[in-house]
Write a structure and sequence with these properties.
This protein is of the alpha/beta class. The chain contains 9 helices and 15 strands. Bound molecules: magnesium ion. The site of magnesium ion has 8 residues, from loops.
């Protein structure tokens, strides 16, 4: 059985603008072994191209198809729910582009949906307009419910904080698409052409990355290089399959040894970059997480 990875970015491969040691090596090995992977982000601000460029500038050699954002997941979900619909958007380029790309029109009155993402351009007039639209019947969609986001200066309010204000003002609950929603978790897996049992989620946040993976039946790996400490784990009713200090451990502990990533019967068109020549070490073996000592598990 082949394997593929869904990988959170902030706290897993970088913090602020600093790469976490081991990230480059891990991604290089995924590429060399032809193992499908996607970086999953709950930040709707940037397009996948912008995110890929940011990663390349940091030294992570990825293409657009390796990026999957909550803005993409939201736009695809809405296009399925109501093809050719309209949206009033509180958010920025990544979200606007994804909605346009999926056949949506951006309007400033009488929309089908009010769609909320991250952004620094939010003002009270937009919030007032959104409240009136929601009360008037527009559906409230959140790209994610993260309450805040880490920056080099400290925390800034996240999409979840904006959504909470709209929910409080209208008495209407938002539908959220980003991690840990099964909508985004499943959509990302399908984008890679993986089956549930072939999918591993790597993340630093229990409430989004790990919960999302657990709910979907994916393998989950928690890295302690971000917002979660080992002692925090006792507070949760669910646990990751594996806990490691950082992504560097995943290069060292043999996790990728023997993972038959590029054995694909019908590669999706988006996966051309994964079509690597067969790797001599690739063989049908149990996923290496199974072979790890029990003490490594969370
Ligand atoms: Mg993170």
């Amino acid at each position: 059985m082949r394997q593929g990875f869904l990988i959170d970015m902030d706290g897993v491969i970088y913090r602020s603008n600093e790469l976490i040691p081991g990230a480059q090596q891990f991604v290089s090995r995924l590429l060399a072994l032809g193992i499908p992977f996607a970086f999953l982000t709950n930040n709707s601000q940037r397009t996948r191209r912008d995110v890929a460029t940011k990663l390349r500038r940091m030294g992570i050699d990825v293409e657009e198809q390796h990026i999957f954002t909550c803005a993409m997941a939201t736009a695809r979900f809405l296009a399925q729910q109501k093809p050719g619909g309209t949206a009033f958007v509180i958010g920025e380029g990544g979200l606007l582009q994804a909605l346009h790309h999926n056949g949506y029109s951006i309007v400033d009155h009488d929309p089908d949906y009010v769609v909320v993402g991250e952004g620094r351009s939010i003002n009270f007039e937009m919030m007032e307009a959104a409240v009136r639209m929601i009360v008037g019947g527009a559906k409230l969609i959140a790209t994610n419910l993260d309450p805040n986001c880490p920056t080099s200066q400290g925390l800034r309010p996240g999409c979840g904080a904006t959504v909470a204000m709209l929910e409080a003002a209208t008495g209407i609950k938002a539908f959220s698409v980003g991690k840990p929603s099964p909508v985004m978790m499943r959509s990302a897996r399908k984008e890679l052409g993986l089956a549930t049992a072939e999918t591993t989620m790597i993340g630093d946040t229990m409430e989004t990355d790990i919960l999302g993976g657990v709910q979907m039946g994916y393998r989950t790996i928690l890295v302690l290089s971000g917002g979660t400490q080992r002692e925090d784990l006792v507070r949760y009713a669910y646990r990751p399959d594996l806990v490691v200090d950082s992504i560097a451990d995943l290069c060292q502990n043999g996790l990728l040894d023997g993972v038959p990533g590029a054995i694909v019967s019908k590669p999706p068109s988006t996966q051309s970059a994964y079509a690597q020549p067969p790797h001599p070490r690739r063989r049908e073996v149990a996923f290496a997480v199974d072979a790890l000592p029990a003490t490594s598990r969370g």
